[in-house]
Structures are given as structure tokens and as C-alpha cells.
DNA sequence: TTTACTTGTAACTTATTTAATTACTTGTAA
DNA sequence: TTACAAGTAATTAAATAAGTTACAAGTAAA
């Protein structure tokens, strides 16, 4: 199991929009960097737009960031692209046997534990901004390899 | 996306083995509580056995815990049932364009961030034992509903 | 008001994964 | 040797992911 790469692609898109802020970031341009189909990019752009992270307009080429990138965290992107539902990172088997003490109580016993684990993960995502990623790209790309 | 319920079922199995420690926990018995097929249980039992969490023997009915349940954490179960690979909770799109600074560096920039988020989640799982779950079941089942 | 270009979207395909099911073998103990 | 359980492989069905194609709808400039 793995969380959809929509999340990583969403981060890629926002990062590239920032680095290309003086140019036009069309779905084709972004798709060329991500190396996928423009329609895939447009679908994800739609999600980012709906979440208020970018501005895009039908008919007019290019996306712009809708917020300062210091205010966009990875958690914002993660939620925008809808890769994991609330409290559903872990799935719990349905219909356990209610005649057994374990079957009867396992779901509500486990759920808060799973939710806590998911929350810890999301908290880390919330501590990183797109600006951090932009800086990371910059650092790596300017090093003396 | 959701992490396979094999994990929740693994926890269910270990918990029930404990509560039924004086009885015989055969795959059929466990399957009846989980409400699934005995073959599914046997497959997961095989993983738990391989990880040294339970003792099962071909031909002889019933599984027993191989360790004290205070020493089995949810992380042990999670790793045993192989639901998430190391550093692969989040998938990253392959083959980004190396001619673009973002495409060229996005993977190694994002990977440590994703790994840190995954690690935080796993740390929470490591802080909960099967004994905690057993107690949780007990508390819920003995309350005055 | 055309023309050229882009976003928005729907339909379809392919591949992968999950979980359940069936059926069989191997092994154990009474 | 009989009965029963674990181990395991093959198959199915459902869900999801990602890519692809095609086209409608919107915008701006010629």
C-alpha cells in the first residue's frame, strides 16, 4: 500500500509554479516537468484550486499561487488532493462478530489509536511549507555535483 | 487509499488469542470472531508466526502468543503483516524531467520529509502494546451499557 | 467575429491490490 | 488409520490508480 502520488505531484506543481513565477505555468509546461499527461495535471490543479491554493482560470493559460508559499504547508496539499480521508489512513475490518467480546469492541478500541498515529503523521506534514521544499530544491541544485 | 485491514485483523487475532488463552484458538475460531474466511486468518497467522509473535504448528489446532503481550507493540504487528514498506508510505512519481531543476531534485527533496512523517506515525504505533488493546476491550465490554 | 489556445471534464483502458473463496497437501495426535 | 487442523496455491471480484483520448467551454488577441 502507498498513498497516491497525487500528493507528491501536487507538491511538485506548487514548487514549480513558484520557481517559474515570472513565466507561464500551463498544464502542458507542468506536465513536461512531472513527466505525465497534461490532463492529469489539470485534474490535480482543479483540486488545488478548489482548496484555494492556486489560481487558474478557464481559457487563460497558467496557474499562479493563491497564497504566500510560506503559508502553504504539505498538509494543505495533502488535504487538497484528497489522498487520505479523515481517520481512515488505516482500514478496519467491518462486521466483526458481535457475540465475541473482541469482535464487539475491537473497532472502537482501535480507532482512536489509529487516529492518533495518523494525526502524528499529519502534524509533521503541517510543519513543512512549500517554501521549505523550494529551498531544498535550490540547495540541491546549486551544490557542486 | 487505506492501509490494509490485515493490520487491524492481526491486532484482533493477537487480542483474541490472549483473551482465549485457556482455550484453543484455531483459525476457524478466530475467523468466526473476525468474521472472515479461515484461510485469510491462516495467511495472517503465518505472517505473525514468521515475525515471532505467535506459535502455531502444522496439524495441531490453535495458536499461542510467543511473547508476553506487554512486549508486543502495534508496530510489531504492523511490520509483521507487511502493510507498508520502509519509506514507502507515500509514493513519489517516477521519472520526473531531469532537465528541469524541480524534476531533477524533487524526489530526494521530498523523500526525507515523507520518511519523517511516516516515522512519526510508526512511533505512535510503537507506544501501544497488545496489552493496552486487551485492557481497552475489557474496559469497553464491562461498562454499564 | 473569427482564430488559436487553454482549462475543465468525462469516458475508457490498463495495471495493481485487496479480500474472499475453493481446494488441495502436509502434518499431528488420538 | 482416521479425523481434523495448518499451510498454501490458484482463482475470482471489487476497488483504486494513473494514463490516455477526446471534446466542450472559456478567453484573448488578431
Automatic annotation (TrEMBL), chains A, B:
<dbReference type="GO" id="GO:0003700">
    <property type="term" value="F:DNA-binding transcription factor activity"/>
</dbReference>
<dbReference type="InterPro" id="IPR036390">
    <property type="entry name" value="WH_DNA-bd_sf"/>
</dbReference>
<dbReference type="GO" id="GO:0005829">
    <property type="term" value="C:cytosol"/>
</dbReference>
<dbReference type="Pfam" id="PF02082">
    <property type="entry name" value="Rrf2"/>
</dbReference>
<protein>
    <submittedName>
        <fullName>Transcriptional regulator</fullName>
    </submittedName>
</protein>
<dbReference type="InterPro" id="IPR036388">
    <property type="entry name" value="WH-like_DNA-bd_sf"/>
</dbReference>
<dbReference type="InterPro" id="IPR000944">
    <property type="entry name" value="Tscrpt_reg_Rrf2"/>
</dbReference>
